[in-house]
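note to self — DONT lose this again. spent like an hour looking for the file last time. sequence + predicted structure for the chain T wanted, 1011 res
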Amino acid sequence: MIPIWVFVLGCAGSQAFGGDPAGLGSDPAPVGGRLTLNFDPGWRFLRADPGIAAASPGYDDRSWTLVSAPHTYNDVDTFDHWSDPGMAGEHGQWGGRTWYRKTFSLPRAWRDRRAYVEFEGVRQVAEVYINGQYLGACQNGFVPFGFDLTPYLRFGDGANVLAVMCDNRFMVDPTGEANLSAISAQANAAVPDDVSRIQADQIPWNNARWHPPQGGIYRNVFLHVTDPLHLSLPLYDFLRTAGPYVYATAISDRSARLNLDVPVENGRSAGVVVGLRAEVYDGSGRRVLALRQDRPVGGGASAVFQVAGTIAEPMLWEPDYPHLYRVVCRLEAGGETVDAITIPFGIRAARWTANAGFFINGHPLKLHGWGQRPTDEWPGLGVAQPDWLHFYTLLLTKQAGSNFERWGHSAAGPAMIAAGDELGLITDQPGVDGESDTVGAAWKIRADAFRDAIIYYRNHPSILIWEAGNQKVTRAHAAELRAILERYDPHGGRAEAYRRADQTDAAYMDVGIGTEGGREIAALPVVEGEYDREESPRRVWDNYSPPDFGYPAAKGQNYPPFNSEDFAVHEVAQYVRKLGAADHCGGANWIFSDTTSGGRVSCETARDSGEVDGVRLPKEAYYVCAVMFRGDPGAHIIGHWSYPPGTRKTVYVVANGDDAELFLNGKSLGHGQRSDRYLFTFPDIAWAPGEIKAVASRQGRPWAADAVRTVGAPVALRMTPIVGPGGLRADGSDVALFDVEAVDARGERCPTFQQRVDFACEGPAIWRGGWNSGKVDSINHPYVDLECGINRVAVRAGFKPGAITVRARSVGLRPASVTIGSTAVEMASGFAVGLPPLPSVPLPRERPVIALESAPPSVAAGPVQPGRFIRSFSYSGPTAIAHVESDAHDGRNAYVDRDFALAGLPAELRGADWVQAAESDALYSALDFVEIAVPAGATVFVAHDDRLPQPDWLRRQFQATAGSLSVNGRRMTLFRRRSTEDESLTLGSNTDDRGARSANMYLVFVQAAGE
């Protein structure tokens, strides 16, 4: 089996822009430099709207709940409802206007200083007030923003009140249709032009289809205290400042040119000669470069210092060696240091090619990894998690060999991007989006958020793609976003990309984001954004395992989910066939952890497309990906070996060798049939108790092995705690996890055990509980079912330190308990000191060999379009062998999986390309079932079964004709569309009727102009 690392504990230091929040000492009164104060603890919260009076300093909030950020008020009602099979997401969460208030005092000595508040993220709309003064409203929900509090603050004995009205009302689709064009049209029709008039439920990406509608101050809050003369913060919204910009040019294995653009704000009344001092340190703490510049800056003025120097023999950042430098910038005036910040950064050279894939630091690299929601939601915790828990999720992807992360479809938070830097995850970072272009005030918010995200995150080496949209936009909008990128990140070595784009946007793109192996623009490099989007809960092993013996709840679903074994097997062909071409850059499996957004299966409480479930327990598919993604020897037997007597089944082994042999209790069962490079199939294996072992070889030599044993009867529960690197902090927001397993007498987990476990929690903590994917109302209770012998529960820290004991009991099993301690938060002059530290992952001992070339390597010919007239094609149905065929005529097979011949083909279709889809996928449900890109002048036909109601997407995009054809004795009416320009078309489900039981899958034909 591929080894999976244990969770690494240790302190990695601050990732906040403002330096080291933990370095305040015993007294935060600043003598010279900047302070970045942790403003997370000690908010009062009310899930109601008392109106504008709640912003007044004198308002009585003593009855409100005491909370700490990160906080959400939807941790009690998420992962709690059946999924909507129309992909509309979870709609049962509470939505509305709520209020947060924080009361704080500032030393009189700070009267002449500046104070800025930074919010890393508030969902969805945040109106901010200080001492009753309205500061502004952030409406994007995902990108950090800040305000200058200085003019309204009281110093000395007077208290200050920071108030935030948070509104998470979300868009609900009244049609209930899984149709993207209808959703987009409905949303845009309601959007006003005036940004001040737009409501939270009119913002297109505040829709449960794309992001779970959970509200709150769900990321960190900081107070930056500076001298009036200071380095500006990267908070363009609402400070209109951009912060330092660090980038490298002329990168080679011998040297790199480091450039710093450092904006300075002089808020003093008089001009002063300012000295910028920049020192660059490598990962070991060795200083490798020192730069300085002195220049006058007028009173009330700003200036940009620009310095550059050469780093010899740079240690380049890449996934296998994510080396980070630090640049320490200091401002000096009058012989004193008045401000200082530390900026982590990396040096790397990336190149995307359409005909040879992706190159990092001169060598090719196939990208493989996952997409993930920027909300990163968790049952019982929602979107509000401590930073180390976001790191934990990304560490799991890295342990499975991931080198790529696509955040969809809005910006990931600072902790997530910092984790990508540390772990070596090449990152696709969006601005904000759902899945369509938008208009009016919503577009203004979206464009501004794209700008603000670029400014805030542009020093992070892991970001190599700015994703401008999850769908194509108008040419004017594409030009606007491109201009933002070229203004604010002209030298970062990053690509701009869209998913589902066409020639409208191609001139403003560097990379295309593909879907299910598609490539809309053949001339551009392609990075996969969403492949293998099937669904499967962790709790269902296969058709032979108790307690369910299959997946009976899935019967009758229009979108049939897989059991765990089939889901894992399916991974292999999906990866190899959709990302395996030499000219493909690789990309993201969709999605890493089960999510409440976009579900298509009504018997589940989440979209179970993750390789881990909602509480991050791995499915079998996770281990399959680890074998394929990692470079070290790996083998994995899919499933367990604890079956009822008489069981005969196919055994699947995934290995990255070239052969695999199976042994049962030491006796060889032969060699597996190899397919799709990694999969080895052993049919009709008779179960017998003992050990089943797979031995993989490469070129005739032993390579890797995996073994699974029959487990005995369950006798006891076992509990294992998981806490962050600094232990559990009593800050009101930190989290501790507890794994609970049923084990046999040898201490091995019982893989088919499913039974309720009851818990008791004692001590200063808030019980958050666990989750069962196939049950509604399973979170926040003092009980949960184990699934496949294990589950995971959580507690949230209280405000008082002390011992926390969790006890677990289940009928017939020896109980278990575990005790952990929570520690007091260090305070200084009333302020919390620092955030919980992030884990530390050491660099590999060996640096990779770097061979940056002055000329591109020899590459193969460019990508070939799949048909004569179809330029690109993607298909999201479960039948992976669907493809494009050319030269349609009577007698040719209509479908890839049935011997149903085309008959009575009209003359206008003869010789056309057509999508040879799967007839078995006729009742499959997806917004984006088929996507094709076609040239201007092409005619696209859809033949649709007359027995079915016409789906909305067909009526909207195509015109019915009098023509028809016959397939399997059934009449199919022809619909036509003439393309006046190069375009990409997204075609949805065969039917919107969820009660349909029999039909032909629609057929798509494309004919050239004049044919």
